[in-house]
Amino acid sequence: MARPECERCKRPQTRCLCALIPHLDSRTRVLILQHSSEAGHALNTARLAALGLDNAQLEVGETFSQLEDWLALPGYRPCLLFPGDEAVPVADFAQAAVATPLLLVVPDGTWRKARKLLYCNPLLQALPRITLPSGLSSRYRLRKAPEPGALSTIEAIVVALEAIEKPAQFGELLRPFEALIEGQIAAMGAETYQRNHAGGAATAAPETGPDAPEQAD
């Protein structure tokens, strides 16, 4: 029989994270496009990010018929958090947010699934791209990063927002994420964790961040 789950955070009621989820405001609007294969993942950091940010929207699927409307939200300039040859460092692009707030579009899935989101939704390919600084380390200790600097989706969003809205801080958003990781480590036992995971960093695309590209929450 399935365990009762919290309707909000989708965790088992005995491990509900809602008390740790903040209510953070941001000038930047965050649109998270989560590949449908990630929605049921136990480590769903995209959902935690959307719950913790008042100015955020989480959509699940592979193709999004309303994407044009979401990107045309009045008063915002859309950009895509995803690496690429044309990607601009987020700190540089942040200057554009001084006059017009940004709509930060974040694909969420493994790198392969995140790329598929771009392929299936050509409007995303036309957006200006921003990328995170190099040399970042993930706190996602239950997964080996597919490449150096890969972060979970929620970590990538925090880094991007802090660069765009400096000196504002968004680290509170990571509280439920860290509790989730600690709970997973406790459940597997210290010995198992040390043997299989200690010393390996975890990730997401982008987990671009986004649970990252092959990253994933």
Automatic annotation (TrEMBL):
Q: What class of enzyme is it?
A: transferase
Alphabetically sorted, this entry's keywords are: S-adenosyl-L-methionine, Transferase, tRNA processing
Q: Does the keyword tRNA-binding apply?
A: no
Q: Return the EC number.
A: 2.5.1.25
Q: Which GO terms describe its biological process?
A: tRNA processing
Q: Where is this region: Disordered?
A: 196-217
Family in the record: Belongs to the TDD superfamily. DTWD2 family.
- What is this protein's name? tRNA-uridine aminocarboxypropyltransferase
